[in-house]
Design a protein that fits this description.
The chain has 143 residues and is mostly helical. The chain has helices spanning 12-29, 34-43, 56-76, 88-102, 112-125.
Length: 143
């Protein structure tokens, strides 16, 4: 599906909000403390003057910015998902693929598996086929 029908389009920001709600619910049901740590990290604000590198707030801002960009594109350009734009769609996909690659680095207390699932969901929701075993592919694949 290269373009997204207006009735089907849930939007990347909508998926982000639903995922955050699920994560928040999970933190209360978690017996190991993982959910509490993950939720606290996801919502942490950057503290100026901290002696530790804390990438979490900026990492979250990248994801929110990409979701917002895709949704704004949909509304501005006649209800077409960003995968339907053969210039900006490719760029959006490559940035999202790059963010997925960065999950291999330091992301603080965030869980890379949950973040990757969110990113793949956002990419597929915009009309891209995502091979979850391959990150940083050379070509963009649309569904």
């Amino acid at each position: 599906m290269t373009t997204t029908d207006k009735r089907e389009y849930g939007g990347a920001r909508n998926l982000l909000r639903k995922t955050e709600t699920r994560w928040e619910r999970h933190r209360h049901a978690d017996r190991t403390g993982w959910g509490v740590r993950f939720w606290a990290a996801w919502n942490r604000k950057h503290e100026d003057g901290s002696k530790y590198l804390d990438v979490v707030p900026e990492f979250r801002q990248m994801i929110v910015a990409m979701a917002t960009y895709a949704d704004l594109h949909y509304h501005r350009f006649g209800g077409t998902g960003i995968s339907g734009d053969y210039f900006l769609g490719d760029a959006w996909y490559q940035v999202m693929d790059g963010v997925r690659s960065m999950l291999n680095g330091d992301i603080g207390d965030l869980d890379a598996g949950n973040i990757d699932k969110l990113l793949v969901g956002m990419m597929e929701g915009e009309g891209f086929n995502v091979d979850e075993s391959v990150v940083l592919t050379k070509g963009v694949v649309r569904s």
